[in-house]
Amino acid sequence: MDDIFFEYLFTENDETDRIDRFLASKIESLSRSTIKKLLLEGKILVNQTQVKASYVLRFGDLIEVMDVDFSETEIVPTKMDLDIVYEDEDVLVVNKPSGMVVHPAPGHYQDTLVNGLLWHIKNLSDVNGEMRPGIVHRIDKDTSGLLMVAKNNYAHDILAKELQDKLTKREYIALVEGIIVNKRGKINAPIGRDKNNRLKMAVTAAGKEAITNFEVLETYEDKTLIKCILETGRTHQIRVHMQYINHPLVNDYVYGNAKPNDFGQFLHAESLGFTHPKTKKWLEFTSPLPEQFKSYLEKLKN
User: What is the pTM of this model?
Assistant: First the structure.
């Protein structure tokens, strides 16, 4: 089976367009002629079916681009006003805003956190390959908060091992739909790819171990503010687990009932703690909620 290098779920906010024009605007590394060639070869599918270049996309269409070599794509360092909260010769901690993609991927090669990091730092670890220099762990595009970055492979290996051994402190603040009655809870449910939608994750018996602890911070009329403490770090873990217990994140248009929006889900990586790879000292950082998150909570209180 071919590898999938680019996936996209066409939403009601996307402008209706032919698939060749739409993909040319989404994947900067592919020309219109290359896209037409891939369509003829059956390397681009819509809802797992081969289509012509003139196919007009519709709401709900799942686009898959397969078996395309993006290895020669150059990551361009970009000047950005990054919120760096800590930095030394081995590690860096950055506060990522909601809406920023962490690292380049097919269809999104510009304005990612990595583009900004490469402008700020000449050398980053290459353990995770050319597309993810320095990236030890990720948070979703529409999740804000703290990330640690490795400047060299020595630091990267030690930080990754600490993550694997569940020793890294990662605490998130989330606003979820509905009232959670219990003050504390633990969700232990394996997460894997959703069989019905490759763009989503789901609780599934064939998935990998995933454990999320949570405690209630405040309740409102029909929503609950919680703190989530991760024991594992699966893709979309908090979002999937909260949906699983029927309390999806507010504003989550993938795992909840919200419509696509500019801010995304109310999820913030508030606390990050780890052992420094060289000094062996424990470092811990906190990040305040983004203004839009705080403003929304104030409206709920009033």
Answer: 0.79
